[in-house]
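Comment thread on ticket #2218

A.B. wrote:
> Attaching the input chain for the structure job we discussed in standup.
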Amino acid sequence: MVVKVVEQINDDELIETTWKMYEETFRGINALAVQRHLMFRNEFDEVMRDGRVQKYLSLDDEGNLVGLSTYTNDLDAMPLISPAYFERRWPELYAQRKIWYCGFVAVAPTGRANSSFGDLVEAMYLFAAAQGGIIGLDFCSYNDEQRKMGRVVRLMLQRLSGNCDAEMMDAQQFWIYQFPQAA
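C.D. wrote:
> Ran it. Output below, let me know if you need it in another format.
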């Protein structure tokens, strides 16, 4: 198992392979979360070709893709987050470009069995830690409540670092107001 980091993916065949893994991983969550968790194909292709966003490719012993994640310290490259929030909250780290954001981690079903998720998390952690950086990412309520992703990642990072403080940066609630008498 090896993790390879690339700045851009321009090979159409590799983009197709990464798209299939990504789409398979996140398709189901769209019915479980209010906010869309699956990029449109054109958005995905743009991210794969965007040199500001590192792509971490987890490859098995035969060189097959079994995991993929995106990672950047150019927060303007990440759709749906507010760089101004990070700049206000951690001004020095923001100015030094030491805030890293993980856009997603997608792992093939075979990859789950062979530690791809952990390998990707470790590779991203080591990169940020070597620069004295911090890491941000997000989970929908389903992934945090049912899959315990916040806890899982925190425990992984504590094991890797020996000392990891985790804090929820923000939360967003989605409300609906119904009028049964009007129906």
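A.B. wrote:
> Thanks. Noting for the ticket: The CA atoms of residues 27 and 38 lie 6 Å apart.
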